[in-house]
Amino acid sequence: MPQPVQYRGMALIVPDNDSEWKEFYAHARAHRLVVRKCKACGLMRYPPTHACPWCMELGWTWHEVSGRGTIYSYEMVMHAIQPGFKEITPYAVVLVELDEQRGQPTPDEALRVIANLVKADFTPEAEANVQIGRRVRVAFQDLADHMALPQFTLTDEPPAGRVWRLPE
Amino acid sequence: MLVQSRGLRDKYCIVGVGETEYSRASGRTTRAMAVEAIRKAILDAGLKAADVDGMLDYQGGDSTLANSVASDLGIRFNFYMDVMGGGSSTEALVGLAMGAIEAGMCNTVAIYRSMNGYSEFRIGGTGARAAQPVRGLDLAQVPYGMRSAGQNFAPTFMRHMYEYGTTSEQVAHVRVAHSKHASQNPKALMKQRVTVQDVVNSRWVVKPLHLLDCCLETDNATCIIVTSAERARNLRQRPVHIMGVAGRVSKPRLDFHWAHGPISRVAGYYAKDIIFPQAGLGPEDVHITGSYDAFTFTTMLQLEEYGFCKKGEGGAYVSSGIIELGGKRPNNTSGSHLCEGYTHGMSMVIENVRQLRGTVDDYCPRAAEGVHTYDYSPGHCRQVKNAEITMNLGWAMPATGSALIMRH
Q: Can you tell me the distance from the alpha carbon of B195 to that of B181, in angstroms, rounded to the nearest whole number?
């Protein structure tokens, strides 16, 4: 079993038999953001799971997505509870809606991913720039030989829809 | 999928309630506290240990199991089960207790929750819980500094603000109301009344949550006892009848509820269609609500989703005065998790049982006899006049909830 990856005081554990995450992180380490795509109905899902939530098919393949998307919601952590995050507080956690499969198979559904909104050096993005509607793209934060964390950075594309952040 | 009512309305009752002191330093085990709370509930009901033959409890690896506490009290089981869970478990277990009795497995069930939620296993996820290794589904969130309940729920609240224009000031009224109620509650840990300004000027924890938008962390044990209406007739207290129950109803994609929107929708969207037809009534018939207040926002989101106001108008509803004592439909009249103490939901059911009996334990000198002043100025009464129907809205997370409707 690979050694736990130490990151901000946490031990991240991805054992050899982790049939959900092991290959996901191998792809992430190669800087590919992948989701599982159903072999029967073709719909994609995240996080990695073992049956299609729409048709119950067991067969799937990894599918690389563009890593581009829009901030759907967010929070600003002002008081960290994990000791390793105190030095980077405040930091933004964003819920990103990926461009692929938006509003499918029902208008309420999408491929959404949780990550931090970061600058190019993976330090937290400034709060004033954290807004619903802003466009983002994935950036991979390498943690170990077998693991990288997908994060998101802002792009200069025009926003998708109404831009909003919590009033001061 | 439609759930068909099984015609059990009014056939089961809550006949006993009990709790320990709410504190931040119990100085004893969850076993000791559970024993005290269960014993109080048994005596409250006018039962003996031998009359209780069923037990259910809920916990998250932080408490003592039923086999120990029952043995302490001299209880022999015909049925018992320990359940994993926190918020929304109370109402669900009331339904399971009814089911166990209906199935002929046992006669009378004690349901308890015992937790050193401040001094031992902090509910907020700090301390030992923050240091736990991260694996499996947690990898999708925890490495990003998203571990506590507040951190887990905040994007839901933020999206609600974006979609409906809900403001911090509006939801602050939930804290204002519950602090007013706590000022009438000798048991409450925080009896000081607060203002909207106090809430929005308190420090940020995780935006959009201020410190006073968040509940307490508390040591305590709580217990309620469920039996058939037939048995309840001969017991010590005025029986409180169960009209309907919905347990752990979830949104789609419970593994990662962010995948199914709108994320400003919570589980009550589905639960309301189970519970109201069972009870044969609607939100307008309910006199008191007990909407789970892990945060000010959770109370607001559930009241809205169950139809106490239109979707999106929860902010206006909770800031209108309706939810305060003296208002049309008070919510959480004990001060509950924001002000009384955190119990994972049980205390909100206990409070509504006492309201329906007419014997809320406020500062009225003859409260235990059901004599109240209905003076809602600080340090006096919190009994609601002529309360006949209550509804509890239990919350585990945005995507899971339970509900319970009771009458006297």
A: 13
Catalytic: B270?
no
B206–A77 C-beta distance less than 8 A = yes
Q: What's the Cα-to-Cα distance from A145 to each of A20, A30, A141, B137, B201, rounded to whole Å?
A: 18, 10, 12, 21, 46
The answer to whether residues B106 and B54 touch, using CB atoms and an 8 Å cutoff, is yes
All residues of chain B having their beta carbon less than 8 Å from the beta carbon of residue A15 are 135
The CA-atom distances, in angstroms, between B246 and each of A68, B94, B402 are 40, 9, 5
Tokens read off for B367: 């409260």
Which strands make up the sheet holding B12-19, listed edge to edge?
Answer: B79-84, B54-59, B108-116, B219-228, B12-19, B240-250, B400-407, B389-397, B288-291
What was the pLDDT predicted at B313? 98
Q: Give pLDDT tens digits for A104-155.
A: 999 999 999 999 999 999 999 999 999 999 999 999 999 999 999 999 999 9
Residues of B with CB below 8 A from A113's CB?
140
In this prediction the ipTM stands at 0.97
Contact between B208 and A75 using a beta-carbon 8 Å cutoff = yes
| Residue B388 to residue B355: CA distance in whole angstroms | 9
Strand pairing category for B12-19 and B219-228: antiparallel
Which of these is catalytic: B12, B292, B306, B376? B292
The alpha carbon of residue A156 is apart from the nearest alpha carbon of chain B, in Å, by 22
Residue B175, φ and ψ in degrees, nearest 5: -65, -40
Do the Cβ atoms of A7 and B143 come within 8 Å? yes
Amino acid letter, A46:
Y
Reported pTM: 0.97
pLDDT band at A25 (very low <50, low <70, confident <90, very high): very high
For chain B, residues with pLDDT lower than 50 are: none
How many inter-chain contacts (A to B, CB under 8 Å) are there? 133
pLDDT tens for each residue of B144-161 = 999 999 999 999 999 999
Yes or no, beta carbons of A8 and B145 under 8 Å apart: yes
Q: Clarify whether B374 is annotated catalytic.
A: no
